[in-house]
């Protein structure tokens, strides 16, 4: 029995070995067969290669034939002017009204293998494909392949984004692009003309920002959105063609496009956002659409050459400071059917129809008087007249209830007179307050010190702008809140003493003012100052560095949070060292840190807010000691987009 069992076991072992050998042989044969048929040099692969080469060669021949025909028709035809895709056909000798598409150039393309993947740009074929066989065959024929980094239709920020620009600096975006990504063409040189087809629906934040050579922007019908700061600081732009399809223009889109001379706003735009044409110094003419509803703050600031404006009947809201420094604006026409605004040509005043708010006062009135009397009947005054330094006295009427802030008035104001029947304002010891003196609106003393009201709770924004000689500020213990830029620019302030009860200090309360020191009562539960740096009480958050950094700055090891604006306007800071243990970077901490070119983010950081690197104008590199994508929101407002973000793991 035992011998029989051993024999069966031996036979079974032989059988299993035979089976294993058979399987191995079959696998080898399968691999050989796969490579023979489907491998890189396989029969089927070779067949595809031959097919693709034939088709692509035919496309090239048809393209050359089309260009030859156009040259015969007109010897001024330039092959490099030819651009065509599935919704367009453009070339330099094109007849007026002539339309077409890529099928008019390459007739065999329609229905073929490459239909939907080909475009013609600068007179050359372009293939958009992820198929490696197609790519190899295109490259054999010197056909440009995937010159951009495009993900899900979004053209991302990459160093190759000028690959298709011609020698004249002209670039047409491929029709395969649905959105131009954040910072995609920011801070690039050589690009003079950009043509954006209608297939591109969105131009995202900072897309062309600080593009030093850009002169002409042509957006074709179909484009719907231009994002915030998209063309900011493009100082050579002279021409922008906006399509009727446009639905939204973002904040500061054309900020400091200082050579832009005229523009027509499309009919579907209902809102002009904050600072849209701010510092467009040469803007002479703008045509507002009939459907426009809202014009927000600072839209036309510093538009020195704008001399006339037509406001359509549809406009319902204009923010009061939109025309600051529009010194040549002398003629405003409000459509007669507008139910919200009126313009008096004799007085040069644009105001609300009810007479409660002034929107604009002509320079001819403001420039010739030392006293400015806010007209009786005005309830809200939010008009910036700061540049008229001839004005030294303000008279507040009985009717006035609110003032935008001290920033509305020139710094050399030395006197404020309040109508005795006014129920909302009071003046005491060269300070303008609300009636019960709980809010300081404007300190206009020209002395070195001031005695503030013992009732004071709120230091309003810009409130010490007019106190041009003040050196020492002692805030009363009643103060609870200090708003933005309260002590802005004042280079004579030696000391500011903050009491025990202040529970809110805006990080920009001492904007661009690095002179002197700030002290905080040791009993304050919310804030502390160490080495002239403002922290929260336990020093885990930097609120603001209060002195001017020169060179490198090292953040304390206790800090887990970089607060918003914490290093704002530190133009001499060249390097910052962040501690291991830092958790959060809030919005705008490095804005206008123009000598900061690189930053290293330690692995401990968990949260970076969406505008953390916004307006860090010269930031060229963001290194993050984490796995790619482990912190959401990249590039977090960085002007140059994702091309400067480097994940180190």
Description of the structure:
- Helix content is 13%, strand content 24%.
- With 649 residues, it is an alpha/beta fold.
- Among the domains are: 44-146, no CATH class; 392-525, Leucine-rich repeat, LRR (right-handed beta-alpha superhelix) (Alpha-Beta Horseshoe); 534-649.
- Helix 2 crosses helix 4 (132-140).
- Residues 1-10 have low confidence and may be disordered.
Kindly summarize this structure in a few lines:
The chain is an alpha/beta fold. Among the domains are: 103 residues, no CATH class; 134 residues, Alpha-Beta Horseshoe (Leucine-rich repeat, LRR (right-handed beta-alpha superhelix)), CATH 3.80.10; 116 residues. It contains 5 helices and 50 strands.
**Taking all residues together, what is the mean pLDDT?**
90
CATH topology of the domain at 392-525: Leucine-rich repeat, LRR (right-handed beta-alpha superhelix)
Number-wise, the strands total 50
Morphology call: flat
The main sheet comes to: 6 strands, mixed
Radius of gyration: 33 Å
**So, CATH architecture of the domain at 392-525?**
Alpha-Beta Horseshoe
In CATH, what is the class of the domain at 392-525?
A: Alpha Beta
Report the sheet-strand fraction: 15-25%
- Would you identify the regions where 5 or more consecutive residues have pLDDT less than 50? 1-10
Instruction: Report the structural category.
Output: alpha/beta
List the strand order in the largest sheet: 6-7-9-11-13-15
The helical percent reads 10-25%
- The N- and C-terminal alpha carbons lie at a distance of 65 Å
Q: Give me the number of helical elements.
A: 5
